[in-house]
Amino acid sequence: xxxxxxxxxxxxxLSIDTIRYYEKQGLIKPNRDxxxxxxxxxxxxxxIDFIKKLKMTGMKLxxxxxxxxLRYEGDHTIDKRLELLYEQADILFIKQREVAEHIKYLYNxxxxxxxxxxxxKKKQKDDNLKSA
Length: 132
Fold this sequence. Notes:
Elements: H1 5-12, H2 16-24, E1 31-32, E2 38-39, H3 42-56, H4 61-73, H5 78-131
Antiparallel strand pairs: 1-2
Helix pairs in contact: 4-5
């Protein structure tokens, strides 16, 4: 199915301005009809979805541009694209470890406070028994 830019914006949940920006950056290269209007297809929808996912991984725009350039050059660039993906996965694994350490630190602090609450409740119970 083919889409004009307005339909494509709705399908991809992007603004027309964002789509044009992506085109200027070389991230997407739409076909053109006889009137030079942009024509997008299902493959372009999937490609935009992939770009969004790359952005969500924190991949830098310059790397997404490079990946896009490689994609448009063809399958002989698969090794270079794989290299970019592996590098981004490594970055995410490092961040994952850092986040795990932060979570561990927070739960250690939570455990300390929970123990203090237990001690406070026990002391209050003991004080109530003494005063009764």
